[in-house]
UniProtKB/TrEMBL annotation:
<dbReference type="InterPro" id="IPR038244">
    <property type="entry name" value="NRho_sf"/>
</dbReference>
<feature type="transmembrane region" description="Helical">
    <location>
        <begin position="147"/>
        <end position="166"/>
    </location>
</feature>
<dbReference type="InterPro" id="IPR035952">
    <property type="entry name" value="Rhomboid-like_sf"/>
</dbReference>
<keyword id="KW-0472">Membrane</keyword>
<dbReference type="GO" id="GO:0016020">
    <property type="term" value="C:membrane"/>
</dbReference>
<keyword id="KW-0812">Transmembrane</keyword>
<feature type="transmembrane region" description="Helical">
    <location>
        <begin position="85"/>
        <end position="105"/>
    </location>
</feature>
<dbReference type="InterPro" id="IPR050925">
    <property type="entry name" value="Rhomboid_protease_S54"/>
</dbReference>
<keyword id="KW-0378">Hydrolase</keyword>
<feature type="transmembrane region" description="Helical">
    <location>
        <begin position="234"/>
        <end position="254"/>
    </location>
</feature>
<feature type="domain" description="Peptidase S54 rhomboid">
    <location>
        <begin position="138"/>
        <end position="277"/>
    </location>
</feature>
<dbReference type="GO" id="GO:0004252">
    <property type="term" value="F:serine-type endopeptidase activity"/>
</dbReference>
<protein>
    <submittedName>
        <fullName>GlpG protein</fullName>
    </submittedName>
</protein>
<dbReference type="Pfam" id="PF16733">
    <property type="entry name" value="NRho"/>
</dbReference>
<keyword id="KW-1133">Transmembrane helix</keyword>
<feature type="domain" description="Rhomboid protease N-terminal">
    <location>
        <begin position="1"/>
        <end position="55"/>
    </location>
</feature>
<feature type="transmembrane region" description="Helical">
    <location>
        <begin position="260"/>
        <end position="278"/>
    </location>
</feature>
Length: 288
């Protein structure tokens, strides 16, 4: 679908009622901010009718008054959301299965199937094979699978909730191919970052991917605003604050071990890809 600019308005002009009217009429549209203006994008063939409608305030004043009144909005059911974002649901199912069969990290013989480095347990000690040896034997899946490991219920629930909230946004906005590439790349690079900068050979969790999704939404929204990635600034600040607390080492005083390198690596991957995707989408929109 080729989108074209239909309107340019000042930032203080409220377009919400007009946008709702277009959506009610099943007119695809989106609003972006460019050079201190609001820009309304619609399909190229509908630019003139939309401009004519906007130029006649009486045609949509009644709708604007109705939109100002609180109207209950029925949210899609969880099943409906799951059908739309089934890839995110699949990640959650896989994570839950791995948590179940590993006993949240208690069954080390099974954990060793998913860890970055293969290892064996002898009594109270674990013997970890070098990563180069593991990969040279063809066990390339280990670059990804540590993200499926979790070691407590809180660890699992926290990451699952964030993956559902952020992952489905990207899956629906960017498409499943981009989303899949983002998750896999973030998983691999965050795992390698943790391996490189941590002394602990056994680690896991989706948090590196979660920070990648956060970084993607954050930087995409900064460069090319869309409704799907409009996260509250306080929420972004909370996550970044948690990241800084972890990096500071304060949590180690309470015997809490955080995969800080995975978090930072994931955030970096997400920020870079978010900027790249925003620039690409913005250029395509301008050329439409």
């Amino acid at each position: 679908m080729n989108l074209a600019i239909a309107l340019r308005c000042t930032l203080d002009q409220d377009l919400s009622a007009f946008v709702q009217l277009l959506q009610q009429q099943q007119v695809p549209c989106r609003v972006s901010e460019e050079r201190g203006e609001q820009v309304l994008w619609v399909p190229a063939e509908l630019v003139e009718p939309v401009q004519q409608l906007f130029a006649n305030p009486d045609a949509w004043a009644a709708f604007a008054a109705q939109a100002a009144s609180p109207v209950p909005v029925e949210r899609p059911s969880f099943a409906a959301q799951l059908r739309q974002a089934w890839l995110t649901g699949l990640w959650l199912v896989l994570t839950a299965i791995v948590a179940l069969i590993t006993g949240l990290g208690e069954r080390l013989d099974i954990v060793s199937w998913f860890s970055l480095q293969a290892f064996t347990v002898h009594g109270e000690y674990g013997h970890f094979l070098p990563l180069e040896h593991t990969l040279s034997s063809g066990q390339w899946w280990r670059l990804v699978t540590p993200m499926l490991l979790h070691f407590s219920v809180l660890h699992l629930v926290f990451n699952a909730l964030w993956l559902w909230e952020l992952g489905r946004r990207i899956e629906l906005q960017q498409g499943r191919s981009v989303y899949l590439a983002l998750v896999l790349l973030a998983g691999v690079l965050s795992n390698l970052a943790q391996y490189q900068f941590s002394d602990a050979p056994l680690f896991g969790g989706l948090s590196g991917v979660v920070f990648a999704l956060l970084g993607f939404c954050w930087l995409y929204q900064w460069r090319h605003p869309v409704v799907a990635y409009a996260l509250p600034k306080a929420l972004i600040g909370l996550m970044l604050g948690w990241l800084l607390i972890g990096v500071s080492g304060v949590l180690s005083l309470f015997d809490l071990h955080i995969a800080n390198a995975a978090h930072v690596g994931g955030l970096a991957v997400g920020c870079v890809l978010g900027l790249a995707a925003a620039q690409w989408d913005k250029r395509r929109a301008q050329q439409a």
